[in-house]
Amino acid sequence: MRQVKAQPETVQKVCDIVRKQLALPAESELTPDTKFSALGADSLDTVEIVMGLEEEFGITVEEDGSQNISTVQEAADLIEKLIQDKSGAS
């Protein structure tokens, strides 16, 4: 599987969605390396984050893909890859 590095805008959108899903204050600082578990997210929260990302970006994250997401950067990179794959497939 090729590695895709997410655009800064994608990382920012992921941060916004994570804040919303976890009901974090708008000023809470999230970085690409922020782990969802460090924010108090459990596996159900992670599923809800993935669902929010799917809705925002119009993609579908396979279950095995979502299990590999533990940080903001990993989520953003996966989104970019899925968007590229989707646009390449059409």
Q: List how many beta strands DSSP finds.
A: 0
**Alpha-beta classification:** mainly alpha
How big is the Rg?
12 Å
Q: State the helix count.
A: 4
Percent range for β-strand residues? under 5%
Q: What's the CATH topology label?
A: Non-ribosomal Peptide Synthetase Peptidyl Carrier Protein, Chain A
Q: Helix and strand succession?
A: HHHH
CATH top level is: Mainly Alpha
Profile the largest sheet: none
The CATH architecture can be named as Orthogonal Bundle
* Low-pLDDT residue intervals, each spanning 5 or more residues: none
Percent helix range: 55-70%
Short description:
This protein has 90 residues and is an all-alpha fold. The chain has one domain: Orthogonal Bundle (Non-ribosomal Peptide Synthetase Peptidyl Carrier Protein, Chain A). It has helices at 8-21, 43-57, 63-66, 72-89.
Walkthrough of the structure:
With 90 residues, the protein is mainly alpha-helical. The chain has one domain (8-88): ACP-like (Non-ribosomal Peptide Synthetase Peptidyl Carrier Protein, Chain A). Helices cover 57% and strands 0% of the residues. The protein is built from four helices and no strands. The protein has helices at 8-21, 43-57, 63-66, 72-89. It is globular. The relative contact order is 0.21. The model has no long low-confidence stretch (mean pLDDT 92). It is found in: Plastid, Chloroplast. One of its GO terms (cellular component) is chloroplast.
